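Notes continue from the previous slide.

Worked example: a multi-chain complex. Inputs as given:
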Amino acid sequence: MVEITWGTLVVMIIVALICGILMVVAYGKCYRMQRDIDTFSDHLEKCLDAMIAGRDITEYEQLEDSLWGKIYEKLWKVNQIWKRQSQNNIEEKRQMKELISDISHQTKTPIANMKVYLDILEHESAGALIGTDIQKDYEENINENAGEGWNDFLQKMKGQTEKLDFLIQSMVKMSRLETGVIEIRQRSCSIFGTLGHAVAGIVPKAEQKGIGLYVDCKEDITVYHDQKWTEEAISNILDNAVKYTPGGGTICISAVVQEFFTKISIKDSGKGIARERQAEIFQRFYREPEVHDQEGIGVGLYLARKIITMQNGYIEVNSEVGKGAEFSIYLPNEIR
Amino acid sequence: MESWIVKTQALKKYYKLGANTVKALDGVDFCVKEGEFVAIVGKSGSGKSTLLHMVGGLDVPTGGEVYVDGKQLSRLSKEKLAIFRRRKVGFIFQSYNLVPDLNVYENIVLPIELDGGHIDREFVEDIMELLKLQEKREALPHTLSGGQQQRVAIARALASKPAIVLADEPTGNLDTATSHDVLGLLRMVAKQYQQTIVLITHDMDIAQMADRIVRIEDGRIVNAQTMKGSDVYAGE
Amino acid sequence: MLANNNGQVITRMAKRSLISNKRKNGIMMIAIMLSTFMLFSIFTVGVTFLKMQRQQDIRTKGGEFDAYIYGGYTEKQKEICRKNPAVDAVGVEGMAGWAVETEADDTLHSIFIWADDTRWNVMKKPAMGEVRGVYPRKDNEVMATKDALEDCGLGDLDVGDTFPITYQDNNGIHTKELTISGMWEGYGDTEIFYVSRSFFDQSGYTLEDSGRGFLYIHFRSFLVSEKTRNALESSLNLGKKQHFIITSYAERSIQILAGLVGLVGITCLSAYLLIYNILYLSVAGNIRYYGLLQTVGMTGKQIDQLMKKQMLLVGTIGIGGGMMLGMAVSFLLIPMVVRSLGIRTGSISVVFHPAIFFLSILVASITIWLGCRKPAKIATDISPVEALGYRRIADKKSYRKTRRGGLLWRMAREQFGRDKKKTAVVVLSLAASLSVFLCLITLIESQGPRTIVSNYMDADMVISNDTLYKEDMNDWARLMDADFMNRLKENEGIQEVHFMLTERIVVPWEPEVAEPWMREMYEVWYDDASYDEDVKEDYIAHPEKYYSYMTGIDETEFDYLNSTLETSVDKEDFLAGKCGILYRNGLSFDMDMLKGKKLNCYLYNEADTLYEFAIAGLTDDIYYAHMLGNTPTIIVSNAFLKHIADDPYVVKANVQYVKEYDETVEQEIKDMIQESPYAKSFRRDSKIDEMKRVEDAQGNMMGVGIGITLILALIGIMNYINTVSGNIQSRQMELAVMESVGMTEKQVKEMLLREGILFGASSLALMATVGLGVTYVIYQSMNYMDIAFEVPVIPVGIMVVFVVAVCMGVPLAAYRILTGEKTVVERIRIGDGGNLNFPRPQFE
């Protein structure tokens, strides 16, 4: 018979009480945890439902240091990305539409002209031209340029065709670029060659205008780039440079290696670009009002920027009105 | 429908300094579109830093409202603002402000870890690659150069994929060449991940790198260069 | 809400910051370790002391009881005690007689005592060692100790042996054969033969007799309030001869425990101040860091967690180290300390209780937690904008008076008063340490004289003649004869020797002094006899039956005695034998009653010569009451005594050596005593012996005390060093700017020096006022020997100098180290908001 004193009894009761309390607390915790998990998954479900249906999900937001708050953030980001995607799609479609309408707009005039000239050729004898614009045009021309004959027309038609050709080609290039049909394949190769080709392309035009060309580029500079397309981009810029530089001016081309990028600088002494316009010039079909009559359709810089950006580089312009313009192309050095 | 990721309405911030009231911001209406790279330019004391602080939830306005990613900041408590910053904002400061105890990698993933989040390792590796930081991954901040530290700061700001990245004179302590590089990287990486950036500077050359320049003077925006047509932005 | 699972990064950051902030964390760790060590030691000391105190108590008293009644007791009183709810056990003893002689020895001291069952088995048990045999049942059985047997000269006997012994009780002197029924060993008075009830009964005494019956009471609880005790006492209705004596040392224990608790408090305070300060400084100096963390998205709660986790790590290591240190040292240290607190007997076993363990950890943890609460709050309250490198907002004051005074002093004073809170913390911490030092060292120094001056008049040795305590004058022997006395006087190593002489006297009846004296004497001290009925007639007729003693003291001793009396005695009269001093013997006489009265007496053997002494004073010092008689004992001058008596006996010799604690002389005296045929009857109390005993306990107290105060001082000083160097570090830019404006380095140093002096001076001032006050209070509360309050000048002086040196030296050293070789410009740049990641040249 074990002798149980009062003391032992009290201790046992206390121990039992403590155990009891601990168990109740543990159970309570489990119960609460289960409830929390239920709430959590409930929120998750509702949130996902809303996202599927395209509804606003900000009511589920919890800007607190909790598990749900964190998960919500990610869901929100996903939601934003989807929204953006769909907006981009809408945007793309719209751009496509624009592109198509631009194309049709741009091609309308040359084709119409060509049609007229062909008509004239066809109905040269017929008096069908009377009263038409072409007749007026023809009459004006006849009056102004006596002695010109069919050659004139043919020349004009040739010009329009070329223009058309140029337009179509650019469009095709652009749309191919846009839709990713053309791949940009970057390689580590000498930029000297690329520059060389591009410069070679505008030499005739530059000479024609009496613009001095200066090139400063070391032969051994290697840059991670797609030669063909980069050449195209540089050419476009050079084109512009030549276009906007008056006779007797200079164009300096240089390549400098920096820590991360290689900078290819094309500096002209042309009329410069106003500050406000400096962002606009890279837009599609943008043309400075002053050169409206010259050749070009305004996609050159747009294309150039696109090409460079696709190569993880960027283009900067530095210019002031009347003080020429410097276009800087930055291409990444190496990516390991 | 505009998707403004940052929007302020008649934002005011006044300080009391002795008997005077300093009007750091005096009614500013400012918006940033998603994915934009905006530069805020102004002289010292023009209020540009203050504007940044408001947008980043570092300070509380005296009047007006700030909305970031749909949230009205003036309604948030201090704790909530901290969490807001953690999840929605990436900061880049003039003096790099890396945690000296942690190495480069740990510094970069700090905001993510503070949220107990899963680290998207591939993404972080990508960023580190782009910013050329892999070799320095285990280095402690005080062993890095100024430019390197700033790159780490950029990586940190981007790693958590925040709604906005706020940069306060990020090239202020760097020499010209490094500045250019750093900024170029910032821009490139931002474009790559469609990250919205708001940058403060007093240097016009730096500001040129942005898509849009906003001028601020004496607490007000002047001569805001908004673009023609809302849908055509340079560089897209 | 499910909590976010983001604890890992905080833990990692906490660990990292430990590594990178080695200095600050190291300091805290050391402080925590020292404090925990102190706490653990103090608690262990406390518990061990309590246990040992109780043990010593029991052993000294010879049993476990808290109070007793002597002067006899009634059965009714015993019942009252038993029934009292506060009382746990009641035991009784009866004094049955005393041993007179055996064949082997005739100067016996042993007595016969009957102890009842409770007394023997419950109360005495804890004070006893081995007990063999059984308690006596028959009236010829005894329970003996070796000591008692040796006193009887029968040290070799054991259980079962029988021996004849002559003893005396109320019925006279008997010789009997006693059998040893059991042997016991133990503590307390061991020259006792315990006997059976029947033995006691036939001794002719009853338990109600004064001096025969003793009632022992053991209370239920350790702490019994005075109210309870008084209630019990009054419920007993004690008779005139009965006295209720409390023997428990609860009060003293409580005092010591209170002292220990105070020490715990101070330790915790010091540690708290240090931790608070360090953390506060580290937060204040790292505002940018915390601001950055907030910018990056750390919530206030997380920052709080970060700091708490840091402190957890630091605290765990500190506490762990402290506990280990404590346990290792305890084995050595505790016994020393406990002994010095007054435990003399036995070996001290250190008490290791798990409760002490947990208590130390708990208290240390609470201190740490408290210390880091405010700084953590400050860190979380930092607004990120404010922290991001924007200049500290200037003080709220909007104007400032230009003051006069030396520039450097002015600047020093301004710096001192700038951050009042910080200054207060440091000064307080230093002052606390200094005060503790002051208190402990004063107490320690006073311990010395307190215990050692237990001998009368600081005598190096007092030699007593034991034979003179016998009733029968024939048994008296002249131990210290002329030859002996001369040899003492001639010994070169002996400075002075004062002899106390004695003679037996008879005081005949007379109405003025003897009558009231005897009446009172019988009332107070004698139970069974009434003065008027039984004694008076006999006394008048045969006064020699009621003899007393005359003690003679020499001039020097007189001077001393005189200085302790209420009324001063005329020296000439005393020396001439015209007056004398009476021993009060617990009676209620005072000088008002006896003034002008005279005492008549004659020497025992010379009845015809009556002497008359004017009563000049009353003393309670039992040193002079060599033997007590019923009639008054009178103290006269030696000269006179020698004059009237032939060859008075030398009862005591008070020896003072030329050189204190001269062992050679001591040995010589010991030898002299051994040579005498009466060697055994000599008793000597030597200061050297006493001192040796005390030294064991005392010797190391100084060391321990210094150890304790050093630890506290160390904490206080660490605090100071850390604060000051942190201060200077954060002022680097300021100082550099001053230098750039033209202040020479020398001037800067002088300014810092003055700042240091201000710190030191204010701490010392605080110590000298509050610290001294507290020391005084504590001292007096423990001062039951009324030793004068004296502050040991030399150690305190050294401490003061040391503190001032530290206060001045640290700022200079910190300045020197921090500025190093850097130029003014570099230091200005460093101070500029503090780039978190070390400033490096930006041009890479």
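Summary box: Strands of chain B lie at 4-17, 20-33, 37-41, 63-68, 71-72, 89-92, 164-168, 196-201, 212-217, 220-222. The longest helix of chain B spans residues 176-192.
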